[in-house]
Specification:
mainly alpha, MetI-like fold, 14 helices, 0% strand, globular
């Protein structure tokens, strides 16, 4: 249809004395203009929702702005105060531990779940749909259910453990600093596991069966086929999944805020929760914005490393 239109247009322009080359260039210019016109709404939407808040946050981080006050320019004072704050250093450590632990668990468990789903033959559509439920349910709502499960007074987990005579006392899942970190890592892993499993499952489906048959004919067992066929071919997919999950995990807010609000003793504060506590709850907008901007170079480094890994894996 497009080719016929171009031929008809070229014939008409030839009658008018216009060369086909000039007509074609004019048509391409109009198509390019149309493309820009279609992209423009999305561009301006991103400009308004991403670029403007980022620039505004950058200004706030360089000022002593407080809630209800515009503030004045103070340079890098907010960043110096944060680097000298023990709570911020603790938040930085918490964010690294939280992200590394959650990513490790999601990678291992997500791969195992993807392999399991790949081998399921009966009711596979129903099972794969059910696996997505933790990712579909609103984060705040599902995390509130987890809070009920671990909250000391109503903890169904403690009740189950005591009923099975595994423990004889209530375990302080949320009041204990170290158990609280384990709890938020567990909930984040549960929340992000479907993303890993379904994406890796899509990668598994795309691997040609002939490669497995060739490896099996060479004497490779299940472990050998996984290490020499599955894992190398899944590296590009795995790198992209880890990249997106690292960004989402490092910037997590809902899970930690609903479960612990950064406590106890600031042992579960992440960048997002500490920025919220400083900027909105304490009214120190400048320092809160400075905390959020500390995420930018970290995420930039993560993206750079992961994209290099993706490029290397695709060129092998």
């Amino acid at each position: 249809m497009r080719l016929e239109t171009l031929n008809e247009g070229a014939a008409k322009t030839a009658v008018r004395g216009e060369t086909p080359t000039r007509w074609l260039s004019r048509a391409l210019v109009s198509d390019t203009s149309a493309a820009y016109a279609f992209v423009a709404p999305a561009f301006f939407l991103l400009l308004f929702l991403v670029a403007y808040p980022f620039v505004l946050s950058l200004w706030f981080s360089l000022s002593d702005a407080r809630v209800g006050e515009t503030g004045s320019f103070v340079g890098l004072d907010n960043f110096r105060r944060l680097l000298g704050s023990s709570i911020f250093i603790q938040t930085l450590q918490n964010s690294m531990v939280f992200t590394a632990a959650a990513l490790g668990l999601k990678t291992v468990l997500g791969m195992a779940l993807a392999l399991l789903l790949f081998r399921v033959a009966r009711f596979k559509r129903l099972i794969r749909g059910a696996v997505l439920l933790p990712f579909i349910v609103p984060t705040a709502l599902s995390t509130l259910v987890w809070w009920w499960m671990f909250e000391p007074m109503y903890s169904v987990v403690n009740w189950t453990l005591k009923s099975l005579h595994i423990v004889n006392h209530d375990i302080p899942w949320l009041p204990d600093p170290y158990l609280a970190m384990c709890t938020v890592v567990l909930v984040n892993t549960w929340r992000g596991l479907p993303f890993f499993a379904i994406t890796l499952l899509a990668g598994l489906v795309s691997i040609p069966r002939e490669l497995y048959e060739a490896a099996e004919s060479d004497g490779a067992g299940p472990v050998g086929r996984f290490w020499h066929v599955t894992l190398p071919l899944l590296q590009p997919v795995l790198a992209v999944v880890i990249l997106f999950s690292a960004i989402f995990t490092l910037a997590d807010f809902n899970i930690v805020y609903v479960l612990t609000k950064g406590g106890p003793m600031n042992m579960t504060h992440l960048f997002a929760t500490y920025s919220f506590a400083l900027g909105l709850q304490s009214g120190q907008v400048g320092q809160g914005a400075a905390v959020s901007l500390f995420l930018f170079p970290i995420l930039l480094g993560v993206v750079f490393v992961q994209l290099r890994l993706v490029r290397q894996s695709t060129t092998l």
